[in-house]
């Protein structure tokens, strides 16, 4: 009777020790996986835990960290696949068309090569601009006057608007509004909004670009044109990567990166982007922190 009871008692005492060792082994393996994930993932809202802090996390917190890292990896993989699809199809198609024309011995007008080559150049520029926006460090933002940025963007698009029988109207305040930003990115952001309006606004209509301050320490610039009300589900898709609005030739000529670039720049500046429809008007806007009326001390 004693021997079996002793063995059973010893087994009961050994089981917690055996379970503890298994948990410690699993915990050590999880720590190693977390360190590897931390080393490979880019900086993001889901990857803020430093390797030295991993040991202070509870087991459930570590599981949540791994799940967040897996979601980030899935998003990165989806972005990679989208980029490859863009390069292999959208960018390749106009270049292949130009090469086919060059190989055609009966090419009568070299000007026929310009449209596909310009389209390929536009796509490459959009892709590079987006890459810069996504890698931009918000710590490098500098004080600038936002009205001057928008005036320059309107100047840049003046000739194109006139060519398309449209006119850009500026509704910009006389007093300066100062923000912390990157001049080149914000200018390209405004140009993209104007370009989007020029593609969709009817001929012989006005396109407005404006700047206001809806509340203290917030500024909003916008571009507005005539157009139908957009369905709610389409609004959500417009700012996604490689999303293309419009139909027919207008849709085919777009890169699908313009409005995604706008949203990326807005977020890099601590803001957001959106679209509103009312009374036959469509307004795309970017909201961001700022709004000093007078120049900062460094400019005085």
What separation lies between the terminal Cα atoms? 95 Å
Major sheet: size, sense and barrel closure?
A: 5 strands, mixed
Number of domains: 2
Q: Strand sequence of the main sheet, in spatial order?
A: 2-4-5-7-6
- Mean pLDDT across the residues is 79
Pfam family, one: HATPase_c
Catalytic activity: ATP + protein L-histidine = ADP + protein N-phospho-L-histidine
EC number: 2.7.13.3
GO molecular function: phosphorelay sensor kinase activity
Defining traits:
HATPase_C_sf, transmembrane, single chain, 2 domains, two-stranded antiparallel ribbon, Heat Shock Protein 90, 300 residues, phosphorelay sensor kinase activity, alpha+beta
Characterization of this structure:
This protein is an alpha+beta fold and 300 residues long. It folds into 2 domains: 2-75, no CATH class; 144-299, 2-Layer Sandwich (Heat Shock Protein 90). Helices cover 55% and strands 16% of the residues. The chain has helices spanning 2-40, 59-103, 114-135, 146-163, 183-200, 232-238, 248-252, 258-268; strands spanning 142-145, 167-171, 178-181, 206-215, 218-226, 272-278, 281-289. It has a 5-stranded mixed beta sheet with strand order 2-4-5-7-6. Strands 1-3 form a two-stranded antiparallel sheet. Strand 6 (272-278) and strand 7 form a beta hairpin. Helix 4 packs parallel to helix 5 (183-200) and helix 5 runs antiparallel to helix 8 (258-268). The model is unreliable at 44-49 and 247-253 (pLDDT under 50). Keywords: Kinase, Membrane, Phosphoprotein, Transferase, Transmembrane, Transmembrane helix. It catalyses: ATP + protein L-histidine = ADP + protein N-phospho-L-histidine. Residues 86-292 form the Histidine kinase domain.
